[in-house]
Amino acid sequence: MKYNIIVSLFVFLFLACNPDFNTNQKDIKYHSSKKGLKSNKKRIKSNKKGLSPKTEINQKNQEVANQNQEVANQNQEVANQNQEVVDQNQEVVDQNQEVADQNQEVADQNQEVADQNQRKKNMLLNDLRNLIEKANADKEKYEKRLKEEPTDQYGIWAFKRLRWHEEPRETVSDNSERSKAYRKLTYGILNDMDTSELKKFSEIIILANEVEGIFNTSSALGGNIDYVIIHLYPKKDNLDKLGISDLENLKDLFEKLLSTKAIVSKMLKQLLLDYQDNKNSIQTDTTKLKLHVEEIIKQIEENQEEAEKLKSDILSIKNF
C-alpha cells in the first residue's frame, strides 16, 4: 500500500513538471514531419541534380541520332544518285542493245540481199554456161558435117559456082582451108536441113541466080557466131569472176546473137517450103523467085549487121 502511494506521488510530480506533454507530443510529431519533408526536399533536390547528366547524355544521344539520320539521308541521297546513274547506264545499255539489234537487222537484211544476189548470180552462171555449151555442141554438129562431107558435098552444086576473088581463085568446093571453112559456116546456117533438103535448096538459089548473095551473107553471119563461141567456150568456167550486171549483159547479148542465126536458118528453111508449095508462083516464075530470094538476102544482111555489132559488144566484156 505504501508502495503504491509512493508510485502515484511520483507520477503526479512527473506530470506536474511536464504540463505540455500532449503538445510536445504533437510538436514532436510535427517537427518530425517537417524534418521528414526537409529530407524529401533534399532528396528531390538531389534527384534534380542527378537528372542533368542523364539529360545531357540524352541530348548527346539525340544529337548523334540526328547526325546518324543526316548521314543516313546523305547515304540515301548518294544511293538515289547511284541508282539514277545505274538507271542511266541501263538506259544506255538498252539503247546500245537497240542499236545492236538494228545493226543486226541491217546485217540480216544485207545477208538476205547477198544471198539473193548469189542465187541470182548462180542462176545466171548456169543459164549462160548451158547456153555456151549448147552453142558449142551445135558448132560441133556442123564441124562433123564438114568432116563427114561426101564427095558431092551433099549435092550442093552451088559451091562449084563460087570462086574466090583472091589468088589462086579456087572454088568453094575445093579442099583449101578457106574453102572448107566457108562450107563449114554455110552448113552451120543450114544445119536444120537434112541432106536431101540441102540439095534442093542449092537448086533453088541456082535458079534464082543468087548463090553468092545467099552464101556470102550466110557464111559471114555464121563466122561472127563461130568466133564468139570459140571466144566464150574456154572461158565458161571463169564466168563467176564477172558481176551480176556483166553476166546479165553477156547473157542477153549472146542470146540475141544466137537468135540472128535462128532467124536466118528459119527463113532459108521457109524458102525451101515456099518453093515446094509454089507460094506466090515462085516455083513457076523465075523472076518472082529471084525477087523473093533478094528480099531474103536483105533480111540476112540486116541480121549479119546486128550480129557484127553484138559480137563487138560481147568482146568488150573483159576480166574473165
TrEMBL record:
<feature type="region of interest" description="Disordered">
    <location>
        <begin position="33"/>
        <end position="53"/>
    </location>
</feature>
<feature type="signal peptide">
    <location>
        <begin position="1"/>
        <end position="22"/>
    </location>
</feature>
<dbReference type="InterPro" id="IPR008421">
    <property type="entry name" value="Borrelia_lipoprotein_PFam54/60"/>
</dbReference>
<protein>
    <submittedName>
        <fullName>Methyl-accepting chemotaxis protein</fullName>
    </submittedName>
</protein>
<feature type="compositionally biased region" description="Basic residues">
    <location>
        <begin position="33"/>
        <end position="48"/>
    </location>
</feature>
<keyword id="KW-0732">Signal</keyword>
<feature type="coiled-coil region">
    <location>
        <begin position="54"/>
        <end position="145"/>
    </location>
</feature>
<dbReference type="Pfam" id="PF05714">
    <property type="entry name" value="PFam54_60"/>
</dbReference>
<keyword id="KW-0175">Coiled coil</keyword>
